[in-house]
Amino acid sequence: MPLLPWRLVKTWSCILCGECCRKFEVRLLPHEAKRLIEKYGPEVVVVRKGKYYLKKVNGACIFQDKRICSIQGDKPMACRLWPFYVEKKPMRLEDRYLARFDFMGETYYVYVHSMCRGINKGITPVEVVIMEVISLMKRKTSMQILSTSMLTDDSIKRIEMLSKALKSVIIGRKLPLPQVPLYVSLKNRELAQRTLLERLEAEL
Ligand code: SF4
Ligand code: SF4
Q: What is the pLDDT of residues 29-40, one digit of tens each?
C-alpha cells in the first residue's frame, strides 16, 4: 500500500536520502512553472501534453544538488508537502479513523507515502510535522521547520533535540543557487523562456 494513514506512523524526519527527487516527476501548477521559468530559465521546466513538470537531468530533478534541494525557498508545493497527502475525505472508507486529523477546527485525512525513508525516523512525532504540513498547504506559513527543508544531518539532530523541548524552532541556511546547465544557446533560451511565459500568461 503506497499511502499509509498517518496513525500507522509514529515519528517522521527527512533523512536526506534524496530518493524522492530522483524517483518522482514533479508536476507544477501553471503559476509555479511561470515563477521558476522567470527566475531560472526555460530549461528547468518540461511541457508534456499541456502539463508542466520539473525537468530531470541524469535521472534526478534539475534542482537536486547531491541529495539536497537547492531551491528551498522556491520549491513547488508538491515538494513542500511530500511525503504527506492531505485530503478532505478518506481515500478508503476503512481509513476514516486511521487517517483522520483534526486541526484548527477542520477535519482532514492525512496519508504518508510509504516510499519515504523518513518514516519512523527521528523523534519528532508525526502529528507535529502534519500540523506544519497543513499550515503550509493552507498558506498560513511558508517556513519549513520540521517538514522537508534545507536541513543537514547535523541540524536534524539539533532540531530534534530542540523541537522536543520547544515544539518549534527556526533555523535557516541559504544554499547556493543551482547551476543550471546551459545546453541551449542564449538566443534559444530567451526564445524558449518567452514562449513558455506567454503560454503561461494565457493560462493564468
Ligand atoms: S523526504 Fe523521504 S524520500 Fe525524500 S529525501 Fe527525505 S527521507 Fe528521503
Ligand atoms: S524542486 Fe527540490 S525538492 Fe522538488 S524534486 Fe526538485 S530537488 Fe527535489
A: 999 999 999 999
Number of domains in the chain: 1
Give the global pTM.
0.76
Given the CA of residue 115, which atom of ligand 1 is nearest to it? 3
Chain length of the chain: 204
Q: Which ligand is nearest to the CA of 119?
A: 1
Nearest to 150 by CA among 173, 129, 128, 167: 173
Closest residue by Cα to atom 8, ligand 2, is 21
Nearest ligand 2 atom to alpha carbon 72: 2
C-alpha 7/C-alpha 28 separation (Å) is: 29
Nearest CA to ligand 2 atom 5: 21
Domain around 71: 3-203
Ligand index nearest the alpha carbon of residue 72: 2
Given this model, what pLDDT does residue 157 score?
Answer: 55
Burial annotation 179-195 (CB, 10 A radius, 16+ → b, else e): ebeeeeeeeebeebbee
Residue 147 grid coordinates: 517538514
Report the separation in Å between the CA atom of 26 and the middle of ligand 2, taken as the mean of its atom positions: 8
User: Which residues make beta-bridge pairs with 4?
Assistant: 112
